[in-house]
Each structure stands twice: as C-alpha cells, then as structure tokens.
Amino acid sequence: MNARIASHLNVAGTYYRLQIHSPQIGKKARPGQFLMLRATETLDPLLRRPFSIHRINPDKTIEILYKVVGKGTRLLSYLKKDEDIDIIGPLGNGFTINKKIKNHILVAGGIGIAPLLFLAQELSKDKKNRIILFAGGRHKGDILCIQDFKKLKAEVKISTEDGSIGKQGLISELFEIFLAGNGESSSVVYACGPKSMMKEIFRLSSIKEIFCQVSLEERMACGLGACLGCATDTRDGYKYVCNDGPVFDAGEVVW
Question: Are 241 and 217 in contact, with CB atoms under 8 Å apart?
C-alpha cells in the first residue's frame, strides 16, 4: 500500500527518522513488529527493506529510525515530506509483555534502539512499571533518542567504546555491573543490537535467571515467509525471523 511521508529528518550523522501517515497500520502495530519499505518505484533495488517500528504517535503516524548503510537506505534517505512510499505491515511477532512483572530492562546496541522506544511507550502505560534503558555504541553519535526515553520516565544508562559519552566500554559490561547489585528474576530483559552483544546479554541474564527476549536481524527478501531467506537456527530447528520473529526467547536461539 502507498502511504504519505509526514516528515523525514536527519537526526545525527547517517541516522534518519522517517514518519509515515498510515493510521490503519498505526492502530494494528505492536512493539517489536516491522514494516517492509520500498525505497523507489524502480526495480533497482529490487527488494524491499525491513525496518522496525520505532514509535507510534497519537495521530497513529508511524516512525522509523534507520541508519544509511547501503544503496537501499541511501535511496530511502532521499525521500521528502509529502511524497508517497510503498509499505507492507505490520509484520512479524513482537515482544511479549508480562503484565505481572514490573521491572523491564531494555538493552540497545547502536541502531538496535529502534524498536525499543515503541516497547517503552507500551510499558509506560502502566505507571507501576520500572523501565531501565541500557544504550551502547562506538561513540556518542551512536547514542540516539535518549530524551524520548526520559520523557517516558525510563532510567537511562549509557556506555560508549571510546568513552565520548557515558561509561567507557561495552554496554554488556555496564549491564553486568548493574545486575551484580540489582538483578532480580522478577525482571524481563529485552535486547536488540549486534548478535554478539545479544548473546552476552542473554548469558548474563541467565546467570540471574532473568527471562530475556531478543529482536533478531536477518536479510529478508519478502518479509512474509515465502522466500525462506531469513532462517535462523533455534533449539527447535530452523525458524524464520519474518514469521516466527523477529522477537525470540533468547534461550530458544542457537548462538
């Protein structure tokens, strides 16, 4: 379907925020789901690109936060306000929210923060929920939308590999320090970012017997489960990130 671009802004370096007017999708979307976008009307690039839903606004416009990394995202970055864009969604299975649990720990590596703001939006609807965000990146330019999380009353902890903002080091190291003094099995961890980071976050969570969910990324051709191109190995055999995920129980994934 075609939808109108409500705004399209460069937020930092190669990072962009795209806002799409599609109330129909905005009403259906759940945290952790994604959209397939076509950057141009031509056949080059041929395939759509998958993007996590970053936020749903009160008017049901949808926001996508993305990083320019190749031809598809570069062409996407050229699109302007009021132009049309071809989208499919919402797709996939999102995060599972246990309403009985009140401690929610979100861990993001770089652009992995994209789906976690929508999750924080949903969690913030219950004022009893405690939301803690761990945001990591190589440098301060990789630390995005922190003020948006703070507006949702999230506690924010930051680390960068070069120490340009927050604690110097990996986000998993900061997470481990936190768990040493605060880890409770009555918490849930939600992680998105590089696979090596999520593997370590899962390992640390397991030590404290904390349930961990991860949002996986794989190359997708269709996003609908038809092409079988986004298979990931799990303890129950191969599953598909588009249909079975992108969110998985971290204990299910073969790391």
Answer: yes
What is the number of residues in the chain?
A: 255
Chain-centroid distance of CA 171 in Å reads 16
Residue 221, pLDDT > 90, answer: no
Rounded to a whole number of angstroms, the CA Rg of the chain reads 18
**Residue 14: helix, strand or coil by DSSP?**
coil
Return all residues near 17 (Cβ < 8 A) that are at least 6 apart.
Answer: 7, 8, 9, 11, 54, 63, 64, 65
pLDDT category of residue 223 using cuts at 50, 70 and 90: low
Q: Which of 55-64, 106-115, 223-232 has the lowest mean pLDDT?
A: 223-232
pLDDT tens digits along 66-77 = 999 988 899 999
DSSP state of 44: S
Is the whole model's pTM more than 0.90, yes or no?
A: yes
DSSP 108: E
Contact present, 89 and 36 (Cβ < 8 Å): yes
Asked whether residue 141 falls in the same domain as residue 40, the answer is no
Contacts of 239 (CB under 8 A, 6+ apart): 231, 232, 245, 248
CATH number assigned to the domain comprising residue 199: 3.40.50.80
Alpha carbon distance 62, 7 (integer Å): 10
Q: Which domain holds residue 42?
A: 2-91
